[in-house]
Amino acid sequence: MSEATGPIRVAQWTSGIVGASAIRAILDDPRLQLVAVYSHSPQKRGVDAGVLAGRDPVGVTATDDIEAILAAEPDCVVYMPHWPDIAELERLLRSGVNVVTTARLVNGQYYPDDAGARLSAAAQEGAATLVGTGMNPMHVPTVALAATAMCRHVSRISVTESMDCFLYGNAATWSGYGFGGPPDTEAIKTTLLATEPDYAEAVSSMARAIGVEIDGIDLNVECAVALTDRDLGFLQIPAGSVAGIDATWTATRAGTPVADLRTTWTLGTILGHRQEPEWKLANGYLVSITGDPNVRLKLSFAPADFESFDIGTTTAMPAVNAIPGVVSAPPGVFTPLDLPLVTGRAAGR
């Protein structure tokens, strides 16, 4: 928690697809002041943040030194690597810096080495706040849970992310999940369990929000294979290799499913490439609430084919818009469910 007077001082951690969207949003928000940018890339070191975000220079240059970030005295760090470094987060929190992150982390409870307890201790020591968010998890599950307010009771809540991810052209991410490799579902499941504990954290939080303490989380994985070789520019996917992954995390109580998070991802179907089996994609998010009454929602983005859509925006903005709530929250590790309602801002406000 910070006692910020005037604009909230913000440091942006990373400047890739999502990070650049965050930089633009921070620069455009009169509540916020960009004071530092962290970049892992030697090529970006010393480059102006405005240039990294496709804008004119703003007088803030990127660094790869955490001490330089701390010296800028940010009230909040917007932490956006693809995967978190728990030691980095501990360092920031112990220094009294609030953190909002999209880095595959909700609360750290399903990360190894007691990460959740370590982060909580660091937050208390530094009187700082950590909030894990992003589009999915954790913003879409938050929207889904808000929809349960219409229900007399809820027995199951499900969220599905269903889309072709071609526009997120990060080869390391997709090959790391198994795209372009053999369709070994057990190997992919092992990878997802190791690299995506945030989905387990999210379904656990969803269940807890509707009053259920779970006793298990299951992960089911299915694959689709490319029918022909495909060159995506950033990744080669040979015929017969993985071109789609359908993964579902299910939280259970006494063997009964109470919350699900499903990701149905393909690479290249938007370009007309075929796979087996063929999956009908929603190009967005589907929410299904089983209760009294049942509720169905679809979140989609114009244009429906994502052709001119800035895919970084919907991941970055739940974090950027949460900054005021994060800096005013008490010390600790929280989810968006613990904050006041996070909303966007009217243009120019």
TrEMBL record:
Which species? Mycolicibacterium insubricum
The residues covered by the Dihydrodipicolinate reductase N-terminal domain are 15-78
Q: Name one GO biological process term.
A: lysine biosynthetic process via diaminopimelate
Could you tell me which Pfam families the record lists for this protein? DAP_DH_C (PF19328), DapB_N (PF01113)
2,4-diaminopentanoate dehydrogenase C-terminal domain residues: 143-343
NADP: is it a keyword of this entry? yes
Task: Show the GO MF annotations.
Answer: 4-hydroxy-tetrahydrodipicolinate reductase
Q: Which UniProt keywords apply?
A: NADP, Oxidoreductase
Does this UniProt record's set of keywords contain Flavoprotein?
A: no
The protein's name is Uncharacterized protein
